[in-house]
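Input set for joint prediction.
Command: fold jointly, output tokens.
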Amino acid sequence: MPGWLIDFLWVVVKVTLVIAFVGVNFIFMVWLERKLSAKMQARIGPNRVGPHGSLQLIADALKLFSKEDIKPAMADPKVWALAPVVMFAPALLVFYVLPVGPNAVIGTDLNVGLLYLAAVSSFTLVGIFMAGWGSNSKYSLLGAMRAGAALMAYEIPLVLSILTVAMLAGTLSVQGIVQAQVDRGYYFVFPGIVAFIIYFICVMAELGRGPFDLVEAEHELVMGYQTEYSGMRWGIMLMAEYTNQFTAAAIAAMLFLGGWDGPFLPGWLWLVIKAYALVMVMMWVRWTLPRVRIDQLLDLSWKFLLPVSLLNLVVVAIFLV
Amino acid sequence: MSLQVVAFAVLAALILYGSYKVVASPLITHSALFLALVLVSVAGVFLMLDAVFLAVVQVLVYAGAVMAVIIFAIMLSEQREIGGDPSAQRMGFGEELRRALRSRHWGLLPAAAAALLAVLAIAGIGRLGAPAAPGAASTSVADVGRALLTDYLVPFEIASAVLLAAVIGAIVLTAREGSDARDGGRS
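tokens >
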């Protein structure tokens, strides 16, 4: 076999593994969220299909696959149909730079890994815009507007908090940042606690999770930009949402909690464990706090998080010099 | 090598088709989306030249930030026709081109510029050498930062002053007279 063919097949294998992980992760996370939310609200949650309702989500996925593909008559056909794909692509691209072990990165260890993560995730807005505008519905458009405002407002504190980690580690490579934490014997969550909290709030706002889910506030906007989607198209959007949630938690685990570092267990398992711990915190916050208003959402970012993250950056820089 | 040529051909075709559709689409939303396609394809060309940093910044700044502003301008605009008139969506290539040129007389100006560029490019083929071999020039972030703060300090500072002026200008233009600051612009 020629060399490039082997390379190509290796890429195919890796992409297949990532997509398989994304699918399983999606099903598991939705099940976990339903179970956790039920526990927090003194309900039982899914418990009929399989032990503890563990097969419920597989049944749900089969239902989504078999549903009729309904297309709104007044929608912009191509933009509307492409939107879920454009939203899902950045969620997958994030996996490219994730390190899963001392010398193992899923794709390549880019020396601008952090910038890559910011660039890829900023592209989600285009997909949301396509869904909101292409649906030709006022709820979709309002939801997309809110999502866009949140994405733009929280991107700046998010990048500033990531920048703090880059300064602490002295590199932009994600693997390099994890390695720096292993070499120095402490995790960046301790010097960078402020940055960690800012990062966590920002990703929750950008993902439209928790108290920030006014993007799809069901009693005023039906479902936001997802309103006009059904069946598997909606399924892909939901999968993108949960995958983003997992990768955001995984990035937080790598930047602040040492990524694959840990005793006994293999590196990738430590990464998944740390990411899931953070995912459960996100779910806990989501089912505990009431929803904020759009002006509160924007005030929090522009008037509080942005000055605090700038100040934090300066303080960290002073300590480093 | 041949794979690179194929990849470049695909990217070039995407850039050309996308740029054409940016000016020729009857719907401004489609123009914006094709612009995003062009910007990402240009990032792909940077990647082929091993300029990873440039490619990532291209996506981050243009496809991320600039597109976000354009998208907001469109969403806040008064345009009511989201779907556009159906006849416009079925326009052929010739009709699209004619409309694009006719819509403003100024449309001829970029067309002439593009034609001039094409003539120059065709005349230049063969006379210019191949682009610098990938990997020859190191493009690490540290190198870029050092170059910006030493060799190119003056242009860098001038650019930041221009950007600051643009920001202040935007605030002056958009701030409405007598609007309550505590209202947060929600009036």
